[in-house]
Amino acid sequence: MIATAPYGPYWRQMRKFATIELLSNHRLNLLKHGRESEVKTSLQRLYQLWNKKKCSNGDKVLVEMKRWFRDVTLNNLVHEFFELAGKFVVADALPFLRWLDIGGEEKRMKKVYKELDQLVEGWLREHREKIAENEANSEEDFMGVMLSKLRDVEEHDANTINKATSLNLVLAAEDTTSITMTWALALLLNNRDALDKVQQELDIHVGKDKLLISESDTKNLVYLQSIIKETLRLYPPAPLSVTHEAIKNCTVDGYDVSAGTWLIFNLHKIHRDPHIWTDPSEFRPERFMTTHKDFDVRGNNFELIPFGSGRRMCPGISFALQVLQLTLANVLHWFEFKTPSGEAVDMREAPGLTSPKATPLEVYISPRLPAFVYNSNT
Ligand code: HEM
């Protein structure tokens, strides 16, 4: 997989390939309608759920949003993978305990791996069948493009490379994005002023008579963009980034580092460093419109690196930001959110390689726009 491959020709080729064929601005633009229609379908389902259940409890309906954000992306299998992968990092640090397989995690990991493999195997089979039926359709998505590019590679290797790369992209994208959306909504529920302010921004730039917000509309939503940065600062979904390993002896900032040394970044700590951030644990999106206006999350400001920095930096930044902006803008535009009895949201994090919210995010939803706007569009 790209994320675990050592630096070398294979990593370079696969990363270049993923960047050009899936994550480039050109490709992202081509796939824009797919993203917009996925978000629309998920919101329509949420609205229909509200419509069906509303009578039993006034016009409010209780929904678990952590699961909803996960469903917008993919499924729980991916989440289980990261939870277990986090435990494996611990097992690697204490290898003498590993053979005991305390808690049966190694066994569970093998089972999850097998299920994930079967999932991508199924996608690959579908693609091959499609190509056999109709060559013209074969390049409509990443796996299809990969199949055609790997045409000259021996079939078993081509299948392995295709499955590993496609699965890596799904794994890297799925959990991180849905976790960030859950934290963003949880933070807004605990900071109602910010929630009001972002909804006002939506009213000004989109208007209450329009239902669907497109990706091009999100460019004007600067407060929403600041909310996303502040969420990624406080709750980086990969709090320890991805482990780096020195491939040869080197010197970093005056320290001698020998080959094989692991470097683990504590992004969570960097992002809350009181020497850098005023009121580091407070949710203050405004900082990205004032004191930290020029800060981005693209690895240029080492104080804020939720996607890492440098050569191994996340190649999915633009994709992730687009999905986050599009989904959050729409969900906040369509619905009002309230916690049951107005209590604060529990902000505890679950352990793992990624850091999801430990408990469900149960909220009451009700439509925010006039009824005719939904009725003419759903
Ligand atoms: C909020 C969303 C996301 C966050 C916070 C995030 C964060 C990260 C981080 C911290 C790394 C490790 C960087 C390093 O080693 O220095 C990484 C690597 C990676 N990410 Fe993301 N990511 C996100 C979404 C995505 C998406 C949407 C994709 C692709 C569709 C993606 C694909 C990858 C890949 C392939 C790597 C491995 C890169 C390499 O080793 O060369 N990520 N990501």
Automatic annotation (TrEMBL):
Binding site for heme: 314
Co-factor(s): heme
Tagged with keyword Heme: yes
GO molecular function, one term: oxidoreductase activity, acting on paired donors, with incorporation or reduction of molecular oxygen, NAD(P)H as one donor, and incorporation of one atom of oxygen
UniProt entry keywords in alphabetical sequence: Heme, Iron, Metal-binding, Monooxygenase, Oxidoreductase
Pfam families cross-referenced by the UniProt entry: p450
PROSITE patterns associated with the record: CYTOCHROME_P450 (PS00086)
Entry-linked PANTHER family: CYTOCHROME P450 82C3-LIKE, CYTOCHROME P450 82C3-RELATED
Entry's family note: Belongs to the cytochrome P450 family.
Protein name: Cytochrome P450 CYP82D47-like
Organism of origin: Gossypium australe
Lineage: Eukaryota, Viridiplantae, Streptophyta, Embryophyta, Tracheophyta
